[in-house]
Backbone:
């Protein structure tokens, strides 16, 4: 195991010990120390470096974050590619601006609730099982939501990203080589209500990037993203897409308006048709009644002469019958006369003269008709 010593520190900094300067004074004024790839297993021996601002400890064998309580001025901490399984003992690092802790064995990003000035967090490519994704503590995300500008979470089996919408100051987000598969999931972090200052988005290697018009979707969803997967989104490209979508929206609006008007027209036509049908039936009934009355009047006019004629004929027949009865009675009288004729004539008058009251000659010579 390699132990951090004053000699090692002196060889791992660009600052040089002044002539006649003691070791403690030298260590106290150091601001940058690069102890990367030194097979260090434990953070130790740095307690005199109180002015330390940048500490490079990547590519070592460190398993735990510890012994950094002295580094109140530390702003950059590089711990990537070690064997760290938990973020701890960093609560006192209130001036920490950049934390590089990718390539470790973390399962959760936590323990940063006191790091309110953290601007960059690099936690990519944790050594995780294939069926496990890196998770994020809510308190940590809210603590850095107003300060975090760069967030690198690539290669962590992440499929849901809506939890990152609280990072309102985020400018660069690298989510490459994860399991993000839907436009909707990406849309949760874009737009004015989420990461409204985002300018650079890396998404390559996710299933969603293989879908049709993914680039157009990102370009339209965010008015601030100007770099997607290493390719610039120009103002001309964005304006073209905006104009195209506006034209589509206008066409759809016109279509829906016409559809609505057609529906209203059809409803009105149906109502008018039913009303017209009722009116036609009513008019038909009125016309039928009028024609019926007219027909009755016309038939009455035609029947009236016939009725009068029938009445006249009935009167005539009645008169004929009455005359015939009189005639029958006269015949009876004649029979009586014939019977009387068998005897002697009375008063020398012809029977017809007695019946009619007038003298009727039997022949032209005025001779009396012979009795037959």
Residues:
């Amino acid at each position: 195991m390699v132990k951090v010593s004053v000699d090692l520190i002196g060889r791992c900094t660009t600052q040089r010990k002044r002539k006649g300067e003691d070791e403690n004074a030298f260590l106290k004024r150091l601001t940058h120390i690069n102890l990367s790839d030194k097979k260090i297993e434990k953070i130790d021996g740095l307690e005199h470096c109180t002015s330390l601002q940048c500490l490079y400890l990547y590519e070592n064998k460190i398993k735990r974050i510890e012994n950094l309580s002295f580094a109140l001025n530390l702003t950059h901490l590089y711990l990537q590619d070690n064997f760290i399984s938990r973020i701890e003992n960093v609560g006192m690092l209130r001036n920490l601006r950049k934390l590089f802790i990718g390539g470790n064995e973390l399962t959760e990003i936590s323990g940063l609730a006191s790091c309110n000035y953290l601007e960059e967090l690099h936690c990519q490519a944790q050594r995780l099982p294939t069926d496990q994704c890196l998770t994020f503590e809510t308190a940590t995300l809210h603590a850095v939501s107003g300060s975090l500008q760069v967030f690198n979470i690539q290669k962590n089996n992440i499929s849901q990203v809506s939890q990152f919408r609280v990072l309102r100051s985020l400018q660069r987000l690298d989510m490459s080589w994860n399991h993000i598969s839907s436009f909707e999931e990406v849309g949760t972090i874009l737009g004015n209500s989420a990461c409204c200052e985002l300018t650079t988005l890396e998404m390559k290697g996710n299933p969603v990037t293989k879908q049709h018009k993914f680039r157009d979707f990102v370009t339209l969803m965010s008015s601030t993203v100007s770099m997607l997967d290493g390719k610039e989104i120009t103002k001309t490209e964005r304006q073209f897409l905006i104009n195209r979508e506006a034209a589509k929206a206008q066409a759809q609006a016109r279509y829906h308006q016409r559809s609505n008007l057609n529906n209203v027209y059809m409803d009105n036509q149906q109502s008018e048709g039913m009303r017209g049908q009722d009116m036609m039936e009513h008019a038909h009934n009125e016309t039928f009644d009028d024609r019926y009355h007219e027909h009755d009047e016309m038939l009455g006019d035609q029947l009236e002469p016939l009725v009068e004629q029938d009445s006249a004929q009935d009167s005539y027949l009645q008169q004929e019958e009455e005359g015939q009865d009189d005639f029958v009675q006269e015949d009876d009288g004649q029979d009586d006369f014939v019977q009387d004729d068998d005897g002697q004539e009375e008063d020398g008058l012809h029977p017809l003269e007695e019946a009619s009251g007038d003298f009727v000659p039997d022949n032209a010579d005025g001779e009396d008709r012979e009795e037959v």
The radius of gyration is 64 Å. The longest strand covers residues 32-34. The helical segments are 6-11, 23-28, 138-143, 183-187, 214-221, 235-341, 351-356. The first helix runs from residue 6 to 11.
